[in-house]
């Protein structure tokens, strides 16, 4: 099963992923970093697009 990994150290908190795919990503208000909405979200084309458009390249989808 594929898994989404967010490198919060590299995350700049721009919010691109949350704007592009709000059903999977959201911004943590306290840390100002991206996080997953649920533990095991469904991986869709929107997830891959959000990862591709991340300016810091901190989102990875592992097989």
Automatic annotation (TrEMBL):
<dbReference type="InterPro" id="IPR001080">
    <property type="entry name" value="3Fe4S_ferredoxin"/>
</dbReference>
<feature type="domain" description="4Fe-4S ferredoxin-type">
    <location>
        <begin position="2"/>
        <end position="30"/>
    </location>
</feature>
<protein>
    <recommendedName>
        <fullName>Ferredoxin</fullName>
    </recommendedName>
</protein>
<dbReference type="GO" id="GO:0051536">
    <property type="term" value="F:iron-sulfur cluster binding"/>
</dbReference>
<keyword id="KW-0411">Iron-sulfur</keyword>
<dbReference type="Pfam" id="PF13370">
    <property type="entry name" value="Fer4_13"/>
</dbReference>
<dbReference type="InterPro" id="IPR051269">
    <property type="entry name" value="Fe-S_cluster_ET"/>
</dbReference>
<dbReference type="GO" id="GO:0005506">
    <property type="term" value="F:iron ion binding"/>
</dbReference>
<keyword id="KW-0479">Metal-binding</keyword>
<keyword id="KW-0408">Iron</keyword>
<dbReference type="InterPro" id="IPR017900">
    <property type="entry name" value="4Fe4S_Fe_S_CS"/>
</dbReference>
<keyword id="KW-0249">Electron transport</keyword>
<comment type="function">
    <text>Ferredoxins are iron-sulfur proteins that transfer electrons in a wide variety of metabolic reactions.</text>
</comment>
<keyword id="KW-0813">Transport</keyword>
<dbReference type="GO" id="GO:0009055">
    <property type="term" value="F:electron transfer activity"/>
</dbReference>
<dbReference type="InterPro" id="IPR017896">
    <property type="entry name" value="4Fe4S_Fe-S-bd"/>
</dbReference>
């Amino acid at each position: 099963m594929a898994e989404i990994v967010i490198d919060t150290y590299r995350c700049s908190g721009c919010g691109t992923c949350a704007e592009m795919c709000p059903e999977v990503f959201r911004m943590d208000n306290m840390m100002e970093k991206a996080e997953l909405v649920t533990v095991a979200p469904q991986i869709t084309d929107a997830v891959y697009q959000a990862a591709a458009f991340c300016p810091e390249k901190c989102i990875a989808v592992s097989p």
